[in-house]
Amino acid sequence: MNKSSLFKELFTNIKTTGAITFSSKSLVNKMLSFANFRGAKTIVELGGGDGSITKGIIDRMDDDATLLVFEISENFCKNLKKQFRGENVKIICDSAENMDKYLEGRTIDLILSSLPFSLIPKETRSMIYKKSSQFLKPHGFFIQICYSYLLRFQFASYFRSIRTAFTLKNFPPAFIIICNV
Questions:
Q1: Strands of the chain, DSSP E
Q2: Cys staple from 5: which of 1, 58, 72, 158, with CB 3.0 to 4.6 Å?
Q3: Which among 97, 98, 100 is positioned nearest to 135, based on CA atoms?
Q4: 154 to each of 57, 78, 148, 150, how far by Cα in Å?
Q5: Does the domain made of 3-180 have the CATH classification 3.40.50.150?
Q6: From the record, what ranges are coiled-coil (predicted)?
């Protein structure tokens, strides 16, 4: 899938992608700078999109780590499967609310998300928050890219500690929410 096809998919499904463009390299680097990849064995990405965050994760994760990438767009999933063929990278064409079905009893060290939570129905959103906090290890991180500071308050019922960062080096400028259980 070429870049123009990826952009077409982005705009065709804006209600599920929640973005007008893909995350900049600067945003991806800033987001991933809050994650401790050393020793992380199970990493989950929510919303694989064009693979820009996925690539950053793979570049940083240990060789023996496993990355589960959840994406609901079949076109994005096909593209991700072509880009990332490693045995330790699992592209899952399913909703993040079903993450527990794919964990095989594991707990999660890191969750990195670009899901458009403000566009996701409340019941689904609540289930994703609940399962994320339930399966995240005590010293693990849930890190979210978003475009509204107010989203921070949705995490309060599920995570003990919440910090935020901001970057202008993206269009539009973005917040990064860093949560711990």
A1: 42-46, 66-70, 89-92, 108-113, 136-146, 161-167, 174-180
A2: 1
A3: 100
A4: 25, 31, 11, 8
A5: yes
A6: none
| Token pair for 166 | 């901001």
- Greatest extent of the chain over all pairs of C-alpha atoms, in Å: 41
Report if pTM > 0.85: yes
Only one residue has tokens 């070429």, namely 2
Question: What are the sequence ranges of the domains in the chain?
Answer: 3-180
106-134 pLDDT tens trace: 999 999 999 999 889 999 999 999 999 99
- Nearest C-alpha neighbor of 38 from the set 12, 69, 19, 64: 64
Q: What one-letter code names the amino acid at 131?
A: K
Q: What is the mean pLDDT of residues 57-73?
A: 97
Q: Exposed, middle or buried: residue 64 (CB in 10 Å: 0-12, 13-18, 19+)?
A: exposed
CA distances, 94 to each of 46, 91, 168 (Å): 10, 9, 31
* Dihedrals phi, psi of 92, to nearest 5 degrees: -115, 115
Q: Quick count: other Cβ atoms within 10 Å of Cβ 2?
A: 8
